[in-house]
Specification:
679 residues; elongated; 4-stranded antiparallel beta sheet; alpha+beta; 17 helices; 5-stranded mixed beta sheet
C-alpha cells in the first residue's frame, strides 16, 4: 500500500515544491519592483519623464474592455497550471522596470516566428496610437487646432468628447474668424462677409487679457510630475501667445488633477468677468457658420428679392444699412424705407429739383440736389436741420467723413465744408461736371471724377491736385490706359496685398493726429455725434504747399516740435504711407482699377455694353449698374464677372452693397434689393 500511495503523492509534492521554488524567486522580485510602479509617490528616482513614460500615466492607462474580455475567454480554456504559468510571466513583466522589460521583449521577439511577428505588428498598429490632444497641455492643443481649416475642425470634433470640447472652443474659432472675415485668407484664398470689426477686436482683447491673467495665476501653481524638489511651471510666454485653456482632460496624477482643476476654475471666472453685463454673446463657431452660409449664397447666386416702389420718377441715389434704406429721386423727394419689411417710413420734402446725391450715418442724412443746395436732415424725424449754399449749379455728388463734407457740382468745382470750424474751401481743376467725390481719411486725400474724363487726387491740407488719372489730351499720361468717356464714379479700395500697408498707414495717421492734437490742444469730434447747424461758413486758406516745405522740415524720423505746422506733420507721414487703389467707372462701358501711388491702370473690367453709372465695392466684390439695365457682380481680385442680374426696365443709375445685400436703383422708379443672408 505504501508503494502506490507514495507514487500517487509524488506529483502533488513535486508541484507544491515547484510552487515554493517559483514563489521563492517571484516574491522578492515582485516585492522589490511592484511598489515602485503602483505607488509613484514612493518612487525616488530623480529624473523627468515624458507624458508616455511617467509611472503614474502608465498605471492609470485604461485597458480596452473588448480585448480584455477576449483575453480572459482564451485564458479560461487553458489548464490551471498553464494559467498560473502565464500569469507568472505577466506578473514578472508587469513588475519589471523599463530596461528589464525591454530585455524580456527582445528575448521573446527573438523566439517568434513570422506569423507571430505579423500578429504583434497588427496589435501595435492600434496600441501605438496616442491621444496627443488629451495628453498635451491645453494651450498647445489649441495651437495645433488653430492650424486646421474649418472642415478639419468639424471632423476633429467627432473624435471624442474631449476633442469636441477643444475643437469647439471660442479660442480656435475666433482665430478662424479673424483669418477669414472681411479679408481673403492667405492660406486658402477665400474669405467671409464683413463682421462688425469693433466686436472682433474687443473679443480679441478680452481673450488676450484672460490668457495673460491666467498665465500670471498659473505661475503660482506647481506642476510636480516626478515628486522632486524642482517643480515644473508652465511657460508664461506660451500661455500669452496662445489662446486660453478650457476645462482640462484626464490627468496623470492626483497633483496634476488638482492643478489643472484650479486652472479650469480660474478660466471660468475670467470668462465671466470679461463679459460685460447685459451683453449678448454668441459662440464664434456659430458666427463662422452663419457667415459661411452667406458666402455660399453669394458664390452660388442664391438670394431673396424685394422691390421697393413709391417714387414717381427715376431714382438717382441710394444708401442702406441693416435697418433702413434711403433713396433720392428726380421727383425731388427723399424716402426712408424699412429694409426688412419694405414699408415706407417717411418722405422728406424740401428740395425743389431732383436729388442727385445722399449719404447718412447714425445721426444725420446729407442730400445734394440740382437746386444747388445741400440739406442736412434728422432722417428719424424728417426735420431739415440745416441748408448749405454756395455752388452756382446743381450738386451732383457728396461724401462726408469725420468733420468734413465734400460736394461736387455741375459748376465744375468741389467744395469741402468743415462742420466744426464753420469754414469751407474750393478745389478747382475740373472742366466739366464733377460726378463723384470721395474722402480718404487715412491719407488725407480726396478723389474726384468728372465728365471731363479725368479722375483727380487732391491734398485736403494744401488744397492741391497731386495727380490726374487718365483723360483725353492730358500731358504725361498714357491715354491708352485711361477712360475715353465721362467718369461717373470713383471709390478708394483696399486690395488683399496692400491690407497690411493700409493698416500701418492708419496707425501712422493716428500718430499724426495725436501729435497735432497735443501741440494745438485740439479735441477730436465724433462724426456720428456731430450734426451741423445753420450759420455762415467762411472760406479757409490752404496750409503751406508741400512744394515749399524743405526736406529738413519733413524728415520722417525727426520728432515733432510745437511749432511744426499740421501740413509739415502730414507731409512727413504721407511720405511713409501707402495710398489705396481706386476704382472708377465710365460711360465708355468699362470699370478700371488704378494704383494711386503711381497713377498706373492695373486692371480693366469689360462686360457692360453701355455706360456704367453706379459702382459699389467691398473687400471681396464689385457691384456695377449700367445703362444696359443690368447689375453685375465682379470678383475684386481676379476681375471675373461672377453674376449678372436683370429686372429693371430702365437704366440702372445707382447701386449699394453690404455684407449680405445689394441694391440697385433705376430710372424706372424702382429699387431692387437682393438679400443673400440667412433667414
Amino acid at each position: 500500500m505504501s508503494g502506490p500511495e507514495s507514487s500517487c503523492s509524488t506529483p502533488t509534492v513535486d508541484g507544491e515544491r515547484q510552487d515554493k521554488n517559483v514563489a521563492a524567486v517571484l516574491t522578492p522580485y515582485l516585492t522589490r519592483h511592484i511598489p515602485e510602479r503602483l505607488y509613484p509617490e514612493s518612487y525616488k528616482e530623480s529624473r523627468n519623464f515624458c507624458y508616455r513614460h511617467h509611472p503614474a500615466f502608465k498605471c492609470k492607462r485604461q485597458a480596452d474592455e473588448t480585448d480584455m474580455e477576449r483575453l480572459q475567454s482564451h485564458l479560461d480554456t487553458l489548464p490551471k497550471q498553464d494559467q498560473q504559468a502565464i500569469t507568472h510571466v505577466w506578473s514578472i513583466f508587469s513588475a519589471a522596470p523599463a530596461q528589464e522589460r525591454n530585455l524580456i521583449l527582445k528575448g521573446i521577439l527573438s523566439q517568434c516566428c513570422s506569423p507571430q511577428l505579423s500578429y504583434v505588428s497588427s496589435l501595435l498598429r492600434e496600441l501605438i496610437r496616442i491621444d496627443f490632444v488629451s495628453a498635451l497641455p491645453p494651450e498647445i492643443s489649441y495651437k495645433i487646432l488653430c492650424y486646421l481649416d474649418a472642415s478639419s475642425l468639424c471632423i476633429a470634433a467627432q473624435v471624442s468628447k474631449n476633442w469636441r470640447k477643444l475643437a469647439d472652443d471660442d479660442t480656435v474659432w475666433h482665430r478662424m474668424c479673424e483669418q477669414h472675415i472681411d479679408r481673403k485668407c492667405t492660406k486658402c484664398g477665400w474669405g467671409l462677409p464683413l463682421l462688425e470689426r469693433r466686436r472682433l477686436k474687443e473679443c480679441k482683447k478680452d481673450i488676450e487679457k484672460r490668457v495673460e491673467n491666467l498665465s500670471q495665476q498659473s505661475g503660482n501653481t506647481q506642476w510636480n510630475l516626478t515628486r522632486t524638489d524642482s517643480a515644473e511651471v508652465p511657460s508664461k510666454k506660451r500661455a500669452i501667445e496662445e489662446a486660453n485653456a478650457s476645462d482640462s482632460d484626464e490627468m496623470v496624477s492626483q497633483d496634476v488633477q488638482t492643478a489643472k482643476r484650479t486652472r479650469s476654475n480660474d478660466m471660468s471666472t475670467l470668462t465671466s468677468q470679461n463679459v460685460p453685463p447685459g451683453r449678448l454673446t454668441r459662440p464664434w463657431k456659430d458666427v463662422y457658420s452663419e457667415r459661411l452660409k452667406v458666402e455660399q449664397n453669394w458664390r452660388r447666386g442664391r438670394y431673396k428679392l424685394k422691390v421697393f416702389k413709391g417714387h414717381t420718377d427715376g431714382i438717382m441715389c441710394l444708401q442702406f444699412d441693416h435697418s433702413v434704406l434711403i433713396t433720392g429721386s428726380y421727383d425731388t423727394t427723399v424716402r426712408v424705407w424699412d429694409i426688412e419689411t419694405g414699408k415706407q417710413l417717411r418722405i422728406l420734402n424740401g428740395h425743389v429739383r431732383g436729388v442727385r446725391a445722399l449719404m447718412f450715418d447714425d445721426s444725420k442724412l446729407v442730400t445734394g440736389s440740382m437746386d444747388r443746395t445741400i440739406r442736412i436732415w434728422n432722417y428719424r424725424t424728417g426735420e431739415c436741420v440745416s441748408t448749405l449754399r454756395g455752388h452756382t449749379d446743381g450738386v451732383l455728388s457728396l461724401h462726408f467723413d469725420a468733420t468734413l463734407l465734400a460736394s461736387g457740382s455741375a459748376d465744375s468745382t468741389i467744395r469741402v465744408w468743415n462742420f466744426k470750424e464753420k469754414s469751407f474751401f474750393t478745389l478747382r481743376g475740373h472742366s466739366d461736371w464733377v460726378n463723384a467725390v470721395h474722402i480718404h481719411s487715412p491719407s488725407r486725400m480726396l478723389f474726384s471724377a468728372s465728365d471731363d474724363t479725368t479722375v483727380r487726387m487732391w491734398d485736403l491740407d494744401t488744397h492741391e491736385c497731386l495727380r490726374v488719372f487718365n483723360g483725353a489730351g492730358m500731358s504725361g499720361v498714357n491715354n491708352d490706359q485711361g477712360h475715353f468717356g465721362q467718369v461717373e464714379c470713383v471709390l478708394p479700395i483696399i486690395l488683399r496685398d496692400e491690407e497690411e500697408d493700409d493698416n500701418k498707414g492708419a496707425e501712422d495717421d493716428d500718430d499724426v493726429n495725436e501729435q497735432y492734437h497735443h501741440h494745438h490742444h485740439y479735441q477730436p469730434v465724433n462724426s456720428h455725434q456731430l450734426v451741423p447747424d445753420g450759420g455762415e461758413y467762411k472760406e479757409q486758406e490752404p496750409a503751406p504747399s508741400s512744394a515749399h516745405i524743405s526736406d529738413d522740415e519733413v524728415t520722417i524720423h525727426s520728432p515733432p516740435s510745437p511749432s511744426m505746422s499740421r501740413a509739415v506733420i502730414r507731409e512727413r507721414s504721407r511720405r511713409r504711407r501707402t495710398l489705396p487703389h481706386i476704382l472708377t467707372s465710365s460711360l465708355d462701358n468699362t470699370i478700371k482699377v488704378w494704383d494711386a501711388n503711381t497713377g498706373e491702370c492695373k486692371k480693366t473690367l469689360f462686360g457692360h455694353v453701355e455706360g456704367v453709372w453706379g459702382l459699389a465695392a467691398d473687400t471681396f466684390r464689385i457691384v456695377s449698374g449700367a445703362h444696359d439695365r443690368l447689375v453685375k457682380v465682379w470678383d475684386i481680385q481676379s476681375g471675373k464677372c461672377l453674376h449678372t442680374f436683370s429686372g429693371h426696365s430702365a437704366p440702372v443709375a445707382c447701386v449699394g452693397l453690404s455684407d449680405s445685400r445689394l441694391a440697385s436703383g433705376s430710372d424706372d422708379g424702382e429699387v431692387r434689393v437682393y438679400s443673400f443672408g440667412v433667414e
